[in-house]
Amino acid sequence: MSSSMTPDAVPALNQAADKFKHGFLGTIGFHFLEWEEDRVVLGLNVVEKHLNLGNVIHGGVLATLLDVSGACSGSYCPYPGRVRKALTLSLTTTFTGQAGPGLVRAIGVKRAGGSRIFNSSMEVLDANDRLLAFGEGTFRLRGGSEDPKGVPVDY
After folding, report:
1. What is the rounded CA–CA span in Å between residue 112 and residue 28?
2. Which pairs count as long-range contacts for 5-11, CB under 8 Å and 24+ apart, including other chains?
3. Where are the alpha helices (DSSP H) in 19-131?
4. Left if phi > 0, otherwise alpha if psi is -120 to 50, otherwise beta: which for 125?
5. What is the reported pTM?
6. Nearest 5°: CA angle at 39, between 143 and 119?
7. Which of the ends of the chain has fewer CB neighbours closer than 10 A, N or C?
8. pLDDT at residue 1 above 90?
9. Is 122 exposed, middle or buried (0-12, 13-18, 19+ CB in 10 A)?
């Protein structure tokens, strides 16, 4: 937990994670370590299901972490029962390292944007802070998500 996080932040991060437990993202199993306006840190405990035939984290898992951290960096919503939704317009990825089982972190930072379109930089680090992948993305907030209060969770 970040030293700047309040005790109330842990329940809020758990509520944030609950918003992403449906569909494909629910199968990945990431969790929020930090989330604030313009920045997010996701954690993933890499286990066997995340590995490729070489017993290292699959590139698709890394790309997913880059994608989600980029979208979340520009769609923070602190209101319980509400969410801001973003979709990916463009995503570049560069794979720079390999890791087996253990904790990895994906960090997304919103770099620029307007009322609906924003750009983010993302990276995935292993438990020893070695860079596994990095990327840049362009994302669009879905209708209703331009408002910081977002929209009601609908699942």
Report:
1. 28
2. 5/34
3. 23-28, 59-73
4. beta
5. 0.89
6. 55
7. C
8. no
9. buried
Torsion-angle region of 145 (φ positive above 0: left; ψ -120 to 50: alpha; else: beta): alpha
Q: Which residue, 111, 119, 115, 112, is CA-closest to 139? A: 119
For residues 56 and 100, the answer to whether their CB atoms sit within 8 Å is: yes
- Per the CB < 8 A criterion, the answer to whether 136 and 120 are in contact is yes
3-state secondary structure of 72: helix
DSSP line for 110-143: EEEE-SSEEEEEEEEE-TT--EEEEEEEEEEEPT
Mean pLDDT of the chain, nearest integer: 89
Q: Is 59 helix (H, G, I), strand (E, B) or coil?
A: helix
48-65 per-position pLDDT tens digit: 999 999 999 999 999 999
